[in-house]
Structure formats: C-alpha cells, structure tokens
Amino acid sequence: MKAGSHEVVIIGSGAGGGAAAYGLAMKGVKVLVLEAGPRFDPFSDYRLSDESWEKTGFPGKAGSTGRQTFAPMQELDPARSTLLSWSAAGGRKNQTEQRLPFKYFHVRGVGGSTLAFTGEAHRLHPESMQMQSRFGVAADWPVDYATLEPFYSEAERVIGVAGPGDQGARYRSEPFPLPAHPLSYGSQKLAAGAESLGMKWDANSRAALSRPYEGRPDCNYCGNCNRGCPRTDKGSVDVTFLHKAVASGFCEVRSGVTVTRIEAGENDRVKGVHLVDAAGGEHFLDTPELIVSCGAVETPRLLLNSANPHAPDGLANESGQVGKNFMETLFWTSTGLHPDPVGSYRGLPADSISWDFNAPDAIEGVVGGCRFNAGVWESEMNGPIAYAQRVVGGWGRKHKETMRDVFGRALTVGAIGESLPNQRSFIDLDPDQVDGNGMPLARIHSHLDGSELDRLEFMAAKSREILKAAGAGELLEEYGAYDFFSSTHVFGTCRMGDDPESSVVDAFGKSHRWENLAILDASVFPSSGGGESPSLTIEAFALRYVSAI
Ligand SMILES: Cc1cc2nc3c(=O)[nH]c(=O)nc-3n(C[C@H](O)[C@H](O)[C@H](O)COP(=O)(O)OP(=O)(O)OC[C@H]3O[C@@H](n4cnc5c(N)ncnc54)[C@H](O)[C@@H]3O)c2cc1C
Ligand code: SF4
Known about the structure:
By secondary structure, the protein is an alpha/beta fold. About 20% of the residues lie in helices and about 20% in strands. The longest helix has 20 residues, at about 450-470. The structure holds flavin-adenine dinucleotide and iron/sulfur cluster (SF4).
C-alpha cells in the first residue's frame, strides 16, 4: 500500500495527531491520518435525549476501547486511611488491602480521547515546566511557557475556548476567543465557600462555546460532555482541528486502521508501517515522514513492539526511556449534600476552578501543585439513577419523597494534582497477553510515592474544607487515586529533552535519532503540571512542531 501523494503520515487522531494534521494541512502539506478507532457522528451517536441517557455513558462502538493490563499494585498503608474511597450508601469502595486498577479512561476514535473529554482547556503554569532545576524532581521541559504561548493562543482560536480575563501566572498575548461561561448556581455556592476561606474561585477556561462560533452553536448546559457532545459546541478534535484539516483538502483520515509495527531502516530513517485495515487486511504503507500520536499508553506500546535489528530495544529507545516516567491522574473528589436545593445538575461541567495551589511550591511542605474545581458532573452525580443508587435509599413513596427533596443538592469539589514520575511507574509490553492482531498489550505499572500521597492528603483535606464552607459538609462519598488507579490524564512515557541520553524526543517532538520520526501526544511531557488538563498543551506543542518544518 502506498501513502499516495501524502507527504506525512500520522498514527492516531487525538489531541496530538489532530492538531498536527490541522497545522500541516494549513501549510499545504498533504497528510494521511491513520486511526485505529471508528468515527463518531455527534448528531446520531450521542443519544442524550434517549430515556436511557444516564445509563449509557460515552457510547461504545466496535473497536472504540483498547485493552491494557496492570501489574500488581501497591499495598495500602493504614496510616493513609483518610484517603480511602467510600460512600455513605455503600461503605469502603475498595474492600481489599491493595490499590486496585479501576480504569484507564480513553477513547479510540476519530478525535481520540477528546471525544469523551470534559473540555477543560488549560495552559500549564509556567513554573511547573522547570521541576528538575527548581526542585530536583521529574525533568525540565526543553521549551518554556513563553515559547509555547503563541501556539496556546492559536489552539484556543481553532477550538473557540471560553475563559476569564485573567489567569494569574498564565500570561496571555491575546484574550480568550470567547467570554467565560456564567457560573452555575452550584458553582456560585462553591465560590462563596472558597472565598470565605480566602481562596479565589473563578470561571474555568473551557473548550465549550459560550457564543456561536464558526458555524458551531453555543452550549446548552446539558452537563453531559463526558457522554459526547451532541451539539458540536464542545471543542473535541473531530469538530475543530480535524474538521478544518479535512475541509482544507490536504488531509485524509482513515478510521479503523491499526498500526501494529513501524519498520525502520539502516540509515536512521523510518521506512513505513505495518497496518491492519477495517476489513482485517494486512498492508505495508510507506511513510515519507511519520508522526506517532497514539497517546501515553499506546505510543510506547507501538514503539516497543517495533524493535528490530537496527533498534533492538524498541524504536526511538536509544535512551532506554520509552515507556518510563509514566504519570497518571492524581485526583480526589469529595461530594456533600447541601441543605438547600441548588440544582447542581444544571450547568457546564467543571465550570469553575481555583488555581490558588497550582504553582509547584504552593502547597506547604510538598513539591508540586494542584487545582480545585466544581466536579459534580465528573463524579456522575447529575441524574436520578445516580441519586437512587448512591444517595436515596428505600422504596416506594418514601423513596420518591426523599428523591424530590434531595435531587440536585449534591455538590462535589474535585481536585487534580501534580503527578511526579518515579521508577516504579512505567509502561511495558505484557509478556502473555496480545490483542486480536497478535500485538502484545500495554501493561501499566503504577505506583504512588509518599510525596504523591502527601499532596493527595492536602487535596482531600482542602476539598472537604471548601465543601463545608459552601454549606455542603454532610459528606456523601469520596473517591480518589490512593486506592484506585482511575486515570483520564496520562503522560510522560516518551519524554522530551535536549539530551539524547535521557530523553526520547527533542524540544520539537522529533526523535533524536530517526530523522523522519516525531512523537506528538501526551507521552512527551517531562512533567505533568500542577493538575492542569493536558489537551491544550498537547495541541500547542503539536502546532509548534509544525511551525518548525
Ligand atoms: C473522560 C475524560 C475526560 C477528560 N477531560 C479532559 C479535559 O477536560 N481537558 C483535557 O485537556 N483533557 C481531558 N482528558 C484527557 C484528554 O482527552 C487526553 O489527555 C488527550 O486526548 C490525549 O491526547 P493524545 O493525543 O495523547 O491521545 P488520544 O487523544 O488518546 O489519541 C490517541 C489516538 O491514537 C489512536 N491509536 C492508538 N494506537 C493506535 C495504533 N496502533 N494505530 C492507529 N491508531 C492508534 C487511538 O485510537 C486514539 O484515537 C480527558 C480524558 C477522558 C477520557
Ligand atoms: S454541556 Fe455544552 S459542551 Fe457539554 S455536552 Fe452539553 S451542550 Fe455540549
């Protein structure tokens, strides 16, 4: 199989691959995107008006989730019992003495995991990019905030990000394209609580349109971004970067195409890829230039599975760093019941946020920051089934009466914190299990060090404090990363850096050795930031790569 007239082939169509395809197509470069997952049609696939909307979640389609395995996880420490997940209705969620793998949340599809993402659109805190030189942990980014800034702005324009006038340390060369969304009533309660504690609680910057924008309508505040946005106002990659790339005539996206191995030659150039098409046919495709954008779990899997005599330890693994430095989502949620009806199911998910503890030195005694946000939607406490199963017990008339009284009174504070790399967190190939194409599955090794748990303790304590100050101190449930691996943000398995001895790609995402190979996705992050959502940074980094070719 030939790439035809395509000059660049991209594997994966998520945040990294989609933004790279857009940037290249805008430059008049002919791009072919190979995507393992299916296409989703926002208007017919996201059935939020069906009666069963709450039970459905993000719709599954054949091939839309990949399989991974998990190495055994750490023993739980009795001294950290305040970090256990629990609910008033069901008690301890993890009944074992060991941390459990719950899920690596992701989507395989045209648009990647952004199809199901909430749509927070964050720039990294500038100081969180120098964690090694300032604090002796993780690695420094070989690119600084000032260099990324114009590309952040470009990505925000492509998406139509809505945000507030000022985000403190994150200085901007231009305003957000759209004004911030108004705070929901639930968020106003949280804001009042946080402000009574001396915290700033502001509108979040969101990839959801606050005004009609470039043919897409504004948000209707249905609250179901994680189930797929049926209006296209959420800035997932399919309706923004990829839509524009394809419309330019320079980009073709082939779905249902899984790359199983990359073939590299003697001359430090990649020759092409082995793939399986939607009908199960196996092919070899020449790749003049190749970009790998499969995400922080699947990119190292593909590279490690592409070992050959010229790259015996895996492709682009001359440093031995492919798969290493895996960073996950260090999260916490506390949900409480407010005494008044606050209609907390209304509004835009994660519409408000506090950045007060986001700088890497903002939490006393702990390196690495975190942020707090309104989180009732992500804790999936926005529908009657959730209330019936998790809040309101009993049957019959009593159940109905309580439901009428309680529905909409749950408030959640969510927190996400810095995840620092450690030697026990990495991705390798499972020695026993393969997928339908015979490719070894990625195996996730995850370990939380003491410093992560200290940060998590701060996040949990502050979340409870904010809820209490907001009037919702009667806790219903808490859920966190201590006793469950449950990640939506993953990073770091092909870290970028200036030194080929200790990094996989350079400051533009280009392989240190393989001349026509680049990696553009979450795997290149040298550190995770202080709880920021990663997609905007992945997209900005991909646009910067394009600017240099
Ligand atoms: C529920 C949820 C909520 C989230 N909320 C937010 C948020 O609010 N804000 C935010 O910024 N981020 C959020 N994220 C995270 C965000 O979606 C990811 O960080 C981002 O999409 C990662 O981009 P990526 O390019 O690294 O990988 P992905 O977007 O995961 O894309 C990788 C693509 O590569 C494809 N692929 C993999 N292997 C192969 C192969 N061998 N051959 C062909 N194709 C392949 C996959 O099918 C996939 O489509 C959320 C994620 C989830 C799941
Ligand atoms: S809340 Fe807005 S962005 Fe989210 S799914 Fe609903 S309409 Fe789309």
